[in-house]
Amino acid sequence: MRPSDLAAGTALCALGLYTLFVVLPAQTSATGGIGLAPRDLPALAVLVVVGLSALLVVRTLLARLPLRASLWPASWHETLTMFVGFALAFAGVLAFQFAGFVLGGAVLIVSLMLFMGERNWLRLLLTPTIVVGGMYLFVTRLLHLTVP
Amino acid sequence: MEAVLAGFSAALTPSNVAFVALGVLLGYVVGVLPGFNRPTALALAVPLTFYMGPVSGIAFLIGISKGSATGGAVSAILLNTPGEASSAATCLDGYPLARKGRARSALLIALIASVCGDIFATFVLIALAQPLSRVALLIGPVEICAVLLFALTFIASLSGASLLKGLISGFLGILLGTVGLDAETGTPRFTFGQAELFDGLPLMVIAIGLLALSEMVVQMEERAKYHAQQSTALAAASDRLRMDEIKACMPVILRSSLLGTLLGVIPGLGASVASFVAYSWARSTSSTPERFGQGALEGVAAAEAADNAVVPAGLIPLFALGIPGGIAAALIIGAFTIHGITPGPLMFLNHAHVLNAIYASMLLASVLMFAFGYFGSGVFARLAQLPLSVIVATVVFLCIVGAYIEGGTMFGVYLVLGFAVLGWLLRKFDFSYVTFLIGFVLTPTLELSLRQALILTDRNPYALLRHPIALAILAVTFLAAWRMANRRRDVTGLATS
Hints:
The complex is a heterodimer.
Chain A: H1 3-27, H2 40-62, H3 76-98, H4 101-115, H5 121-142
Chain B: H1 2-11, H2 14-32, H3 38-45, H4 54-79, H5 88-99, H6 103-138, H7 141-152, H8 154-157, H9 163-177, E1 180-181, E2 188-189, H10 203-221, H11 223-235, H12 243-265, H13 270-285, H14 297-313, H15 315-321, H16 327-338, H17 347-350, H18 352-381, H19 388-407, H20 411-428, H21 433-457, H22 468-496
Antiparallel strand pairs in B: 1-2
Helix pairs in contact in B: 1-18, 2-4, 2-18, 3-4, 3-16, 4-5, 4-6, 4-14, 4-16, 4-18, 5-6, 5-14, 6-12, 6-14, 6-15, 6-18, 7-21, 7-22, 9-21, 10-19, 10-20, 10-21, 12-13, 12-14, 13-14, 19-20
């Protein structure tokens, strides 16, 4: 048992209950089907998730873990890197979609390399050129796919 | 046997060998590239077979199938990004091995297991296509449902330190496996009005986000630590796969090849299910299950042997009955049709010489697969020695391109980002993403077969008596669940004491 299990169990329980009472009725049909109704299996899965998450919360509480222990499982540095990493990836995807495959891809690769501490200008130049150029030719010439 | 030898003389013509080699090489490249999957490659290649002879054309397509199954392991091991959806199980131990500086060993054991699984299933195809296809006809929805329920019991053994968290992950996977149009009524479930979700969440997109992209973010966090490991990996350039390690993997390879062949014969199950079930089986029967997930060669061998055995085994119902066992087999029918051959029982009488030449070409493809894989693994292993910044940036870009190719829209790319966040959370909160993936992979087929089984048995449990195979599998399922529960109790007891 870890203190973060309490946070995970509570969040999953709350999310499960929201799915059960709000999302499931709106997004599935309770009728129809000869063997199983479309809602049966998802409802069963959500019920089990809610039940097991509640059990996880109870077991963590019963384990009497230190009150001052952190409920968040990652350090401040890890969390910050995660946010920056995903923000860069998201910005890269936006660039990929709106600035195009070649420019967006190059921006994504170079920004991630710089974030990782790469300062060798030759690598910063060659990596996007080879990777983006190679993939662009592959996707457009061989697969004949339309790219952004 | 004489007929097969005669087939070799027809198959070993320079042009046929060249087409088989080209097919295997193309398949290998397709397998290495995430997002560009086997059915897409086959769909693009089928029209090309119009310009080839029947043997060359079909052998070319089978070469692509076999090559892609082998190549999928390369990116799974080196980048934690499955080249093919069925290679997702290979990531679980392949990537940890690469991080320990044993990329080349992992690639080699994957190759050996792939070739063994492939050759085993090809011999089964040659020798037992007709009798096995009759067995396949005995396997209906009730039996498939029983097999999948059995596979679900593996969630318990793959849960890691906490059974409770493993089960939660597994059921979350099951929940997400229900997204899309309901197979029976056609009503949408959890699609939120998005037409892109009507076919469900693609396994490839989930695997890329959950395994590869989230891992790259973790790598960014641990960049200092990774740099230290990178130097270890460079120092371990002398990494060699030892003979005793290969010997230790052989029982797992043989078992997984058999399992992959049996599951491959059953239409609709597919290589992803086979590789995950084989991996789970290998772990649950291992005397050191704690090594799995940390870099066990047996884990890579099990997943790859089963994955590759499915390719020839999937052709058994096609050759013997004319029933395609999966998308790949369905596309290969196109090549048969182009050359005026109808797959099915009559093919053994009317086109025996073509069939024997195809068998011979399949064995030739296995040999070529080993040759390309052996030399390729040396080249690809060097990729692991590139600087971390180059690897992470390239993999993130390939993840995005792979997700785009998979669906042809940006929707898949945003899904990948979402699943990368989920993967990061699962890692940090110590929830098993293996059980999540198993639950997700099994759900669509499980739900469909459960529905069909309920209709067939009219919800009457006594009707199961008419399905002795299903009853036997269910009995094994209960036994396995009981044994796993007992083992868990022992482990928990030991841990407490």
